[in-house]
Amino acid sequence: MNKQTRLAIFDRLALAIPEPTTELNYSTPFELLIAVVLSAQATDKGVNKATEKLFKVANTPQTILALGEEGLKEYIKTIGLFNSKAANIIKLCESLIERHDGEVPQSREALEALAGVGRKTANVILNTAFGHETIAVDTHIFRVSNRTGVAPGKNVLEVEKKLEKHVPAQHKKDAHHLLILHGRYVCVARKPRCPKCCIADLCEFEEKTTAVSL
């Protein structure tokens, strides 16, 4: 895929998705960090339902530590892997207080040193909370990048590196959410909604669908 086609793809996605942002509810970088940690193998809707109650009583490292691991579990028990996530969040909060005075750091290295935080989560925080031009490759972005031909790769790191290289400069800040939302609602895993896709004529996917799936 050439540079002009990629630019046209992101121009169209930007028009189709005028407010590209996360669907996780948060009001501070810390709240976003907790929500993203909880979102692994869980839906944003499920996470929002849990954090709506949690953040009313505990939305800082100090107040979550005050809940304790068992107390935290009561708020997140509807989310998959809640036991390990609760343990990681407690460790994460301890580290934030000990190393960063309770503030969420703005470097990938510092973020990845926190319990339960990998490269993908760190990239989400850097991009969404702090406006860095990072792209966290989740299942949606991996699928859309490969299917369309925008940034094909055999693994998430390869796709991330290609996106960093090929996404037009003016779209780098929003590319993460443009691709996620396109993958979540149009370029879905099964029966992609090609007839309603704004980039169908630019996409390199050969097995385009002819009927819109519900």
Whole-angstrom Rg: 18 Å
Multimeric status of the protein: single chain
Which percent bin holds the helix content? 55-70%
* CATH-defined topology of the largest domain: Endonuclease III, domain 1
Rounded mean pLDDT is 94
End-to-end C-alpha gap: 30 Å
Strand content: under 5%
CATH class of the largest domain: Mainly Alpha
The CATH homologous superfamily of the largest domain is called Hypothetical protein, domain 2
Count of domains: 2
- What class, by secondary structure content? mainly alpha
Largest sheet: none
List unreliable stretches of 5+ residues: none
Number of strands: 0
Order of helices and strands: HHHHHHHHHH
Q: What coarse outline follows from CA principal-axis ratios?
A: elongated
Q: What is the architecture of the largest domain at the second tier of CATH?
A: Orthogonal Bundle
Number of helices: 10
